[in-house]
Design brief:
It is a single chain. By secondary structure, the protein is of the alpha+beta class. Helices cover 60% and strands 13% of the residues. Helix 4 (92-115) packs antiparallel against helix 5 (121-138).
Length: 168
């Protein structure tokens, strides 16, 4: 009976060696780098982080493009078929009034140099009224033309709109 336990031990060792051989023969060897690559390729958190980074980069590019101003050139032209004229009647009252007051002031300054006194108010009024009548009668009663030809008037305007919506 002594042989029986030794036989079992031999069979046990033989089966154990065979099992180790079978396991190592069918097992795969994987390097640490391959494990990291598999984890990186199949990790959902890492995929979401890459997607968020790409989205942020696109948003940054869009923001940079909207920061640059948008420039529009607006142009127009107008044809003036009649010659340019000056409407002298709109300024007639101001010119007659101002010229008459200058005449009174000049006469008063000359009188003051000669006598040392101002002209009397009655004399100033007579000079003012006489000047007003003379200048008013000589002042043109028509609208003179500045030229005898027609014109094209053109304009060009540049409008820049920044990303904030402000125009310059």
């Amino acid at each position: 009976m002594r042989n029986k336990p030794t036989n079992h031990l031999k069979w046990y060792l033989l089966l154990k060696i065979l099992a180790i051989f079978v396991v190592t023969a069918n097992g795969q060897t994987t390097s640490l780098e391959t494990c990291f690559n598999l984890a990186r390729d199949h990790n959902m958190t890492l995929r979401q982080a890459k997607s968020a980074l790409l989205s942020s980069q696109y948003n940054l590019q869009a923001e940079k493009k909207s920061y640059l101003p948008k420039v529009d050139l607006l142009s127009s032209y107008t044809y003036l078929s009649s010659p340019l004229t000056v409407n002298l009647q709109t300024v007639k009252d101001g010119i007659v009034e101002g010229s008459s007051k200058q005449s009174v002031n000049a006469a008063n300054e000359v009188f003051k140099e000669v006598t040392g006194n101002d002209l009397s108010q009655a004399a100033q009024d007579r000079i003012y009224n006489a000047s007003k009548n003379i200048i008013g009668s000589v002042y043109p009663n028509y609208n003179p033309s500045l030229s005898k030809q027609s014109y094209f008037v053109a304009k060009l305007r540049c409008k820049a709109t920044h990303f904030s919506g402000k125009q310059t």
